[in-house]
Write a structure and sequence with these properties.
By secondary structure, the protein is of the alpha/beta class. It contains six helices and nine strands; from the N terminus they run ααβαβαββαβββαββ. It has a single domain, classed as Rossmann fold.
Length: 208
């Protein structure tokens, strides 16, 4: 995990929350998507690459009680925990590389708007797909937010993998049924636009 870990540690040590391109004061699109799944408040939710994003704050405020936030940078998670204060005790914080992490439980919603497009090798991508195929609940959902085909080729100095709706659906169709994909222009704190692709999937029932 060392090189990527060191990179993200440096980013979160040297920059404030609103000084990174992915910052959103209110993650409106994410919250709308999650609300649309109509999950019970006790559903197990995984936020992959959550860093010090405010998504977890809003999920806690909305009454979700089984939230996990995974990030490769412990500094990012410490920032989020400090911001939440006492409420941080109700969240599971996981320091891990999304490319190699193996959960200890299944999730009703696996949410990733931050990590997957940084996985650029076939091994990393395959490992991740295998993980979600095993650890998304049999009646659960997957939401993937990545840079679209015409999105930036790099983010935070690192190369990224860009996706089309067809690419994303093909990658996951062995295990997940596509519900809907859409694109969105994200305006960064620097007043630039980044083109994102959001895809929602339902876990397919596997033959016994």
């Amino acid at each position: 995990m060392s090189n990527k870990h060191d990179h993200w540690q440096k980013v979160y040590t040297n920059k404030n929350s609103d000084e990174v391109s992915w910052y959103q004061s209110t993650p409106a699109t994410s919250l709308e998507i999650i609300s649309g799944f109509h999950l019970p408040k006790q559903a197990h939710i995984m936020d992959v690459g959550g860093g010090d994003s405010s998504l977890v704050d809003h999920l806690v405020e909305h009454g979700y009680s089984n939230i996990s936030v995974l990030d490769i940078s412990e500094t990012a998670l410490e920032k989020a925990k400090n911001r939440l204060g006492e409420r941080a005790k109700n969240v599971e914080w996981i320091v891990a590389n999304a490319a190699t992490y193996r959960p200890s439980k299944t999730y009703h919603l696996w949410y990733d708007r931050a990590a997957f497009h940084f996985l650029t090798t076939p091994t990393e991508i395959d490992n991740y797909v295998q993980t979600v195929s095993q650890f998304v609940h049999s009646e659960g959902f997957l939401m993937m937010g990545t840079f679209a085909e015409d999105g930036p080729a790099k983010c935070s100095g690192l190369p990224v993998q860009r996706y089309s709706e067809t690419m994303m659906a093909t990658l996951l169709n062995r295990f997940f049924e596509k519900i809907k994909c859409f694109t969105e222009q994200h305006r960064t704190p620097f007043n630039t636009l980044q083109h994102f692709l959001y895809c929602r999937f339902r876990r397919m029932q596997m033959a016994q």
